[in-house]
Amino acid sequence: MSDLNPLAATFELRYKKAWKLCYEGNREEAETTAAELLLEPRLGRFHQAGMHLLLAMSPHDYVEHALEAVKLYTEMENREGVTVTEREQLQKLIGDANHLLNKARQDQTVADRNIQKVLATMTMDDLHDARIEEMHKRLDAEQAAEEAAAAAVAEDLDDAFGVAPSQELPSSQDVPELAGDSQMTGTDTQRTDSQRITVSRSVSIADSQRTETGLDDDEPLPDIVRYKFDDKKGL
């Protein structure tokens, strides 16, 4: 990581932190960390793809996150100048992302069926109240994520490099694209509570890599976690 400039190195630290939290079972904190990192306008594509891959295992917008991970990894694999080692790593990550995409689509189908069952039992007043409540939750979550992301950048820069928030940060030209996309060493439509379903199963992908990406050669991705379907809230 010594070859990275301060901005890219900060992104790398936050990227690794999200995956570490995920593997330790701190899923909510890991997902929050990943979502905050994705708010960064100068985040490279490799880090973007990794955070979308992590969020594809969450209860929210998992299909969209899996699709984005597949897209970004595929774009990087098709670029000129990618080394053989990098291409092999990207192909394994594309396989992981496609696996999660298939699972996400299956889960969405089940969730959609459950929603239709709930809608059939709700009155118009119930629907109106639930939608208003969901709108307020979404706005609060977006505001909290933006504030937390700003605080995380300031804290990481200060702790890791002794850079005060007021100091000038590197420009986007300072972050090489594939290297800034993590140097190969390394918005969101809210899913409602009523779309949460109980799913806890192992995703065994033996070829997932960690190296500097947060994925070991022989270590599978963490379990997918979807939450219990709530038949009265968040439509």
Automatic annotation (TrEMBL):
Source domain of life: Eukaryota
Region (Disordered): 164-223
Compositionally biased intervals (Polar residues): 195-212
Protein name: Uncharacterized protein
Organism: Gibberella subglutinans
